[in-house]
User: Fold AGR3 protein from Malurus elegans.
Amino acid sequence: IMLHSTLALSLLLIAVTSNLAMAIKKEKRAPQTLSRGWGDEITWVQTYEEGLYQAKKSNKPLMVIHHLEDCQYCQALKKAFAENEEIQEMAQNNFVMLNLMHETTDKNLSPDGQYVPRIMFVDPSLTVRADITGRYSNRLYTYEPQDMIFLIENMKKALRLIQTEL
Assistant:
């Protein structure tokens, strides 16, 4: 009986230790940056509220990218976005940047539905720019990988609006 309980205890200890080791190993993985693959050189804000605050403070437009990890269209857009040097550079220098994997409570950010991917701009006066749209009439704020030129134009438009309106 003694041998039996010692063996059981040893097995239990081995099981606990290996689970612990696996948990520790998980913790050691490189932390996921806020970029989530959209651009590691870009400074990303963590929340919509923080984005609004930074936009107002810095007088830069806020660019909000709604996406989901398991959406193939989002993944394709992310790749095109991350590989486009002009977009990355503008995003880094001229915008407050936020990518979200959940909806905000601000209904103005989903004027035509809560689809992904969706990219919207908010100006420093904290107005959601429903007038900066992509190419598709059924999903006004969506972009496809081949639409990076349109996105660049819209980023420039968002910057121009600040100079002319605000």
Observations:
- The longest strand covers residues 62-66.
- Residues 2-28 form the longest helix (27 residues).
- The domain at 30-159 is CATH 3.40.30.10 (Glutaredoxin).
